[in-house]
């Protein structure tokens, strides 16, 4: 059984690694469609449409023009998430999405942070680094 530390991973927009990623999250979900009919003794369902969303928390870095800078609100992107790293034969998740939220915050005694949310458009696929 393989396990991995979060520090092994990385996130990229296309081929460009996003700098200063603190954490990421991907959620996949599927709708269900009820197809229960008269005479059935229990409710039954069919698989409906699937969707995915992603979120990233980063230390804000305005010099990361190809990573964080490629994630402005409204941008259409290809997101690649490498939970175990991006070495040959590592598994990663990839999909097209739209940036639906960008929040930048900071406090006098902390770092400036950014939170980015992405709504997937189309399927999220799992593949292997070549």
Walk me through this protein's architecture.
The chain has 130 residues and is mostly beta strands. 0% of the residues lie in helices and 53% in strands. Strands 1, 2, 3, 4, 5, 6, 7 and 8 form an eight-stranded antiparallel beta sheet that branches. β1 and β2 (16-17) form a beta hairpin. It starts with 9 loop residues before the first strand and ends with a strand.
Keywords:
130 residues; mainly beta; Elongation Factor Tu (Ef-tu), domain 3; 8-stranded antiparallel sheet; 53% strand
- From the alpha-carbon coordinates, what is the Rg to the nearest angstrom? 18 Å
Tell me, briefly, the overall form.
globular
Strand content: over 45%
Question: Can you summarize the main beta sheet?
Answer: 8 strands, antiparallel
Distance from first to last alpha carbon: 22 Å
> How many domains comprise the coordinates?
1
**Uncertain ranges:** none
Mean pLDDT: 96
Overall CATH class: Mainly Beta
Structural class by SSE content = mainly beta
Secondary structure tally, helices: 0
Question: Architecture in CATH?
Answer: Beta Barrel
Enter the CATH topology name: Elongation Factor Tu (Ef-tu), domain 3
Specify the helix fraction band: under 10%
Q: What order do the helices and strands follow?
A: EEEEEEEE
Tally of strands: 8
């Amino acid at each position: 059984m393989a396990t991995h530390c979060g520090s092994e991973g990385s996130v990229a927009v296309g081929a460009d690694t996003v700098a200063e990623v603190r954490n990421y999250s991907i959620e996949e979900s599927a709708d269900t469609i009820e197809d229960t009919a008269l005479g059935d003794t229990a409710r039954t369902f069919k698989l409906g449409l699937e969707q995915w969303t992603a979120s990233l928390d980063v230390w804000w870095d305005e010099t990361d023009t190809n990573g964080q800078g490629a994630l402005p609100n409204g941008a259409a992107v290809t997101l690649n998430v490498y939970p175990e790293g991006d070495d040959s034969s590592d598994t990663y998740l990839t999909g097209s999405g739209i940036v639906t939220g960008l929040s930048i915050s900071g406090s006098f005694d902390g770092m400036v942070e950014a939170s980015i949310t992405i709504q997937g458009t189309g399927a999220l696929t799992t593949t292997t680094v070549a």
